[in-house]
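Regression test case RT-17, inverse folding.

Input:
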């Protein structure tokens, strides 16, 4: 069982930045692939970013490439999502997900609102 707690969301103006954090309770955190998803009202859930267990490889949705960066610190059991040049369309609840084989664990989500 893995517990994930996201933090760092909030209200930011267009063009601003936020860094989301996700702290995991897993003993073997370094064995988990980590992802960030988001879901905006009335829209389907979207995979935003993916990072391998070692952090050696990352992937991003086309909508955030060049603006968002996913990273992890396995010593701190934490994964991050640095979000720069935020746009109103980035407004959503952001979820941290831990994957290991067929198992997946979700955090409770953190709200990001981009508005002037």
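Golden output:
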């Amino acid at each position: 069982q893995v517990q994930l707690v996201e933090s760092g969301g909030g209200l930011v103006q267009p063009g601003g930045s936020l860094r989301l954090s996700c702290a995991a309770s897993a003993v073997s955190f370094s064995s988990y692939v980590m992802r960030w998803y988001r879901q905006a009202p009335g829209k389907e859930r979207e995979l935003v970013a993916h990072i391998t267990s070692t952090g050696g490889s990352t992937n991003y949705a086309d909508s955030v490439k060049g603006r968002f960066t996913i990273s992890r610190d396995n010593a701190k059991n934490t994964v991050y999502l640095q979000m720069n040049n935020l746009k109103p369309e980035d407004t959503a609840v952001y979820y941290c997900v831990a994957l290991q084989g067929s198992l997946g664990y979700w955090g409770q989500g953190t709200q990001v609102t981009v508005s002037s």
